[in-house]
Amino acid sequence: MKKCPYTKQREEIVAHAIRSVASELRLLDAADLIALLRLECHGDLADLVSSAAELFFLPGTVNFGIGGDYSLDWGTTPQVTLDIELKPVGMTVFARLTLLESHGAVEINHITFDDPSQDPHENTALLAASLEASCFQIASAA
After folding, report:
1. Mean pLDDT, rounded, for 55-74
2. Of 26, 71, 97, 102, which shows the fewest CB atoms inside 10 Å?
């Protein structure tokens, strides 16, 4: 995606929203994820992403995209990148989720708003609100 002044803020919003999903995916062995990518087992990857996301998001909100990539060289830590699609109400976010040993990172490729505002700040606020509304809320004990 061509970077704009709002990209960094939007990536932070998405990263914050899916941090739990990334943590769940990092529980998987990196070698298994790399094997699934290498063998193009996209259906299996989609199941793993859906299983990790179903704990935190409404069904259909977080999906595996069209592929991914990995970096695995001698003497380095594995890095797995998965294409993901986020589909909260009112938009679709196409992003890449990079999983490292102790953390993850998000890079947004494209966002399609169903009814975009002329004001980019409103679109950013809509992104945050829509992702929050798509998350399961944990009720606090009174």
Report:
1. 94
2. 102
